[in-house]
Amino acid sequence: MLLLLLLLLSPLVIFTERCHPDDKAAILKFKNSFSNGPQLLSGWTPDSDCCNRFECDETTNRVTDFSITNSDLAGTIPDAIGDLKYLKTLRLHKMPFLIGEIPKSITRLKYVTFFDISWTNVSGHIPSFLSELQSVMFIYLSFNNLTGPIPSSLSTLPNLSGLDLSRNRLTGSIPESFGQLVSPSLQGLSLSHNMLSGDIPKSIGDMIIYQIDLSRNNFSGDASMLFGASKSKSAIDISRNNFEFDFTNVSFMAETLNQLDISHNKIYGKIPSQILEASFLQFLNVSYNRLCGEIPSPWKLKYRSESFDNSSFIHNRCLCGSPLVQCK
Ligand SMILES: *[C@@H]1O[C@H](CO)[C@@H](O)[C@H](O)[C@H]1NC(C)=O
Ligand SMILES: *[C@@H]1O[C@H](CO)[C@@H](O)[C@H](O)[C@H]1NC(C)=O
Ligand SMILES: *[C@@H]1O[C@H](CO)[C@@H](O)[C@H](O)[C@H]1NC(C)=O
Ligand SMILES: *[C@@H]1O[C@H](CO)[C@@H](O)[C@H](O)[C@H]1NC(C)=O
Ligand SMILES: *[C@@H]1O[C@H](CO)[C@@H](O)[C@H](O)[C@H]1NC(C)=O
Ligand SMILES: *[C@@H]1O[C@H](CO)[C@@H](O)[C@H](O)[C@H]1NC(C)=O
Ligand SMILES: *[C@@H]1O[C@H](CO)[C@@H](O)[C@H](O)[C@H]1NC(C)=O
């Protein structure tokens, strides 16, 4: 009886394997390209169904999500990654021994919307061919060993919604083309902790960006275009740069602004009293600049029971009033 049952079931077991042979071949190539792949990925065998391990499309059974995190796989990103043609998510995250450049073969991932290679030791330039990933919405390349400039081609991505290039060793300035992004709005743009420099393009002020982080670079000149009462920004961090502009007449998006950090620059003038209308503000730091005059008050903060303490204002040229010394 048992034997009969097994006989009946065995063809069924073979029949129900979902993994597409092309995806299986790519995944096995991926595994074998790493010196320690066979050891660390020993469960990836020719007779295991890749759709048990990775997310596959319900109808086509093609692998749609290839995510590897916290892995000691040692070597470069194999070209075989481009054979997983139906990926929507590619995520290689926290892989300290992943080295070498981002391979050209990734341009075959025409459906990828979420592209994440972060916390690795991938190096070289950010390839301008990333702009061939026409469906991409999020590009996360933070915490790698990337050098060179930001490719201006990224501005042509029609659906780009988040770009995080923070914590690399990027140089050069923000491409002029970023002010004319094809994508209608960005939820987030982070370029922090690099070695970027120069003026930021004026046109970047016209973009709708919800969170912008340019901190810890060596940008200089004017950043006042990032501010404005009609611009939908909820978080602005330009701290630890060389920005030098008059703060007196900037205005804020009072309905959305909740974080503002301009500390450690050479920003001068006064803190505009219009900032008091930003009632959702939760974090403020204007310290270590060249600001002067009276700190506006009273704050009408909805999400904070107390207003900001003196560490938000210290080390300016001549700011006065609560929480610093009284104005003369
Ligand atoms: C890159 O490699 C260095 C040296 O092996 C290591 O200390 C560092 O943590 C690695 N970086 C990342 C982001 O894993
Ligand atoms: C961009 O997003 C829209 C809306 O989600 C979608 O219809 C369109 O196909 C996307 N474009 C590309 C190139 O993926
Ligand atoms: C980072 O990249 C540089 C070359 O750009 C290389 O010399 C260095 O070894 C890389 N660091 C790691 C930890 O891979
Ligand atoms: C930052 O840029 C200024 C010019 O604006 C230059 O003098 C300075 O050397 C740069 N600092 C670093 C650390 O690159
Ligand atoms: C700020 O605006 C006031 C009033 O419009 C104007 O008089 C002043 O010149 C402006 N200051 C700067 C530095 O633009
Ligand atoms: C900031 O406030 C703390 C106590 O709240 C005080 O000890 C310190 O002297 C103040 N610093 C300045 C620069 O006002
Ligand atoms: C503001 O930045 C300065 C300088 O980095 C720091 O000392 C201070 O603690 C910060 N204050 C707040 C409230 O973040």
Automatic annotation (TrEMBL):
Residues 20-52 form the Leucine-rich repeat-containing N-terminal plant-type domain. Its main location: other. The keyword Protein biosynthesis does not apply. It comes from the Eukaryota. Gene3D superfamilies: Ribonuclease Inhibitor. It is found in: Cell envelope; Membrane. The keyword tRNA-binding does not apply. Transmembrane segments: none annotated. GO terms for cellular component: membrane. Keywords: Leucine-rich repeat, Membrane, Repeat, Signal. InterPro entries: Leu-rich_rpt, LRR_dom_sf, LRR_N_plant-typ, PGIP. Residues 1-16 form the signal peptide. Belongs to the polygalacturonase-inhibiting protein family. This is Polygalacturonase inhibitor 1. It comes from Artemisia annua.
